[in-house]
Amino acid sequence: MFQTLRYDPVMSPDIGELIDAARRVQGEFALSGDFAAGSVGAAVRGASGRIYSGICADLACGLGFCAEQAAVAEMMKSRESEVRAIVAVGRDGILPPCGRCRELIAQIHPANLDGLVVVGEGRVLALRELLPEQWLEAVRASRSAPNAGG
Ligand SMILES: [Zn+2]
Questions:
Q1: What is the pLDDT of residues 9-38, one digit of tens each?
Q2: Distance 146 CA to ligand 1 centre (A)
Q3: Which residues surround ligand 1, an ion (CB under 5 A)?
Q4: What is the CATH number of the domain that holds 43?
């Protein structure tokens, strides 16, 4: 079983630093028409220890994107894909990632299922706890099985 990890911002300055980075980029601003960006800010810490941030875009017709996506894209510009920890922050506080962002993080590096996701004030979970019955691990296990394939 997986254990819910709890963090103390004083005892875990790396998480606190990540939250601060997300808060620094969060802040909604108007785009053209009725659209806006920045209502959510996100920050991701890569395996290098570097922090990358991003903001969301709230657009119509499915054209928008999440702050986590933007932060991950920023990280990949430095050719990193292993996520040690990620957080998203809205105007009213920390937001857990949507299902699409959970899947995105899981797919870009196999170690990311053990990456930490800040899901609320003082609450940190491993990504695999947010994605039970992992299909990717089942596929990877079947590929590495001695009689896998056909
Ligand atoms: Zn999302």
A1: 555 678 999 999 999 999 999 998 889 999
A2: 37
A3: 66, 98, 101
A4: 3.40.140.10
